[in-house]
Amino acid sequence: MADSELRDRFLNILHGKAVDKVPVLSVTQTGTVELMKKSGASWPEAHFNAEKMADLALSAHTLAGLEAVRYPFCLTVLSEALGCRVNPGRYDIQPSPGSSPFAKKPEELELPQDFAERGRIPLIADVTSILREKAGEEVPLIAGMEGPASLASRLLGTYNFLTWIIRKPETLRECLKVTGLICSEYTGILSEAGADAVCIVDGIAGPDMLDPRHFDALIKPKYERLCRSGKGMKLIHVCGNSTPILETLSECGFQGISIEEKVTDLRAAKKLVGKRTKLIGNISSSGVMLNGTCEEIKGEAQKCLLEGIDILAPGCGIAPKTPTKNIKALVEARDEYYHPNFASGARGPFRCAQED
User: Is residue 22 over pLDDT 70?
Assistant: First the structure.
């Protein structure tokens, strides 16, 4: 396939159709310091300026070779729109929420009537339009967003979120209904703007933070509703070892589940999700992607391919100081994997592409 078919390959694999080779992309953040320098679009401005955000997001495709464009680079858009103060970060640190506006009055949490016009929500819709024009129809666009649990934890405060599971379960349940509705509404906005897929990132919902029993009761219904909203593909990323909830996640309606390297048995994970969804990942972002050699990255990548990963990707957001050559190594590893010499066992030593 030529580059003109990247979007078809991405959508086909999520639909369970045959493809010539596994896509290589990131469903989590892609902004790096090297790409900022080369694209002329840097944090923190690229979090708040549509043209800069589009330029930096596109550079992960045009300069690093990833086969999709993923944006934005933070998980504060919905938090900000609902009243959180946001620390803008710096050139190598993402924005972070700095307040919990509904910690003392959770009963006041609701979907605002002017939701679509709040904060950076119109800006992200504009970025989608800009990217579609610049990237064309051939490159898939993936929009990231907070998930219902992460949004609730920020609006209520993480301590409240975790303790109210036991102390105030009905209050938390009502808040999650609202944040689930907010996420579904935003998903529709992104789909209408032209995103091919949305990826919700909901780290606090993972087994490292939340008991799988509570996940089943509190979170799963919100995911099922979200997966029914909007027109595009629905993907999810849950941090940590998501193995205990993979089967449940696969029942929610997501076309893809992004997993970290902490999911160590990929073949077992594939059995848990069956044919209901596709697995995305799971090269360590903070480990081999950031600090490894080209050879180490390719070795890990091809191990994932041998074990049946559906979309080859970093296991979490790409660290800002990740070298561009290490991102390119993922694409090279995939290409080498499909080369006849690899299948015959006659492949030579791995080599990194030369940097410009």
Answer: yes
